[in-house]
Amino acid sequence: MSKLGDLGARLYRGEVGYDFVGKRKIWYGISILITITAIVGLAVRGLNMGIEFEGGAVFNTPKTSVSVNKAEESAERASGHDALVQKLGNDTLRIQIAGVDTAKSDQVKDEIAKDLGMESEKINADLVGPSWGEQVANKAWQGLGIFMVLVVIYLAIAFEWRMALAALIALIHDITITVGVYALVGFEVTPGTVIGLLTILGYSLYDTVVVFDSLKEQSKDLAKQTRFTYSEVANRSINSTLVRSINTTVVALLPVAGLLFIGGGFLGAGMLNDISLSLFVGLAAGAYSSIFIATPLVADLKETEPQMKALKKRVLAKRRAAAAKGESAEAPEPEGDEPQDDVDQAGEDTAPAVVGPRSGPRSQPARNRGRGRPSGKRR
Fold first, then answer.
1. Using CA atoms, how far apart are residues 326 and 269, in angstroms rounded to an integer?
2. Distance CA 92, CA 68 (A)
3. Which residues, in sequence order, are CB contacts of 58 under 8 Å at separation 6+?
4. Is the pLDDT higher at 272 or at 50?
5. Which CATH number is 11-49+132-302 given?
6. Dihedrals φ, ψ of 112, to 5°?
7. Is the pLDDT of residue 376 over 80?
8. How far is CA 229 from the centre of its chain?
9. SUPFAM superfamilies this protein is in (predicted)?
10. pLDDT-based confidence at residue 7 (cuts at 50, 70, 90)
11. Whether pTM exceeds 0.85
12. Which helix (H) or strand (E) holds 81?
């Protein structure tokens, strides 16, 4: 078994672990700082909306040796608007001009062709009206809103409303950071960006749901024992799924990084930039939020319940009593596939450990063979 696989197995069994939930105030502080930075960037710089949302014209030139700066100056002079020029991998130019009236597009194309020394007929023009761009923007927001509502309803049914609320907050966190990075970097927002955003929301939810499912299983009948609090069980759930989350995130980020840095950076493919940047930032933010935000939030919300508050008091009281006697508050977990319950001196059910490392040799429970049977033989 590899070192990473061995670490994953030890994390799953609770033999090692990191106190993610116990240090949740640190993670909350980091997330608040990043979110504020993203909001400030969005407010100061704003989003660079593509022509699909604002309307305008896109001109694709044939293969040329004209520089990007010269083409940009020519397009701005011909149109009277700001122009965005990209050099594509086949030495062609993509000239995008927002706010150009469709009736004026032929005149602009002729002037650009004359200025750059090209034939006007060889320049392809794609025109987008502002009303159509507004419809695209509205549909994008509607789709995002419907997606959020359906996610909350499903998680509330499959798990509980606290987990649904925590997942929703984590999703808003991921979207805010991704949109803020777009504002700071200045990348253009296109329908490809919207596709990337919706895709990373699915990845973010995948990691979150995996942890929630583990937490749901490990917190069954939790109130019947006095060894661990809900926060400690939540921390065990994060650690037991940590390696899986890291592996899936890294595997997903590698091809996206190839699209962003090779396809977008070296080949100059504009659409690859639009999709890959949102995917790259969103995947990283989603992995972070599922570990450091969503599950600690569930623990905070859950421990406001009277039942969980009472459990925490019992657990802490038992540990203080054990510490006063110089004893350990935890007992070795028994062998076997099914959990076996212990009963403490007060007659209270103290189920075996759900969290925490196991240490020391395990004692094999005595088997009462043939109890109540004269022959002593097993049936």
1. 67
2. 10
3. 51, 94, 95, 96, 97, 125, 126, 128
4. 50
5. 1.20.1640.10
6. -65, -45
7. no
8. 26
9. Multidrug efflux transporter AcrB transmembrane domain
10. low
11. no
12. none
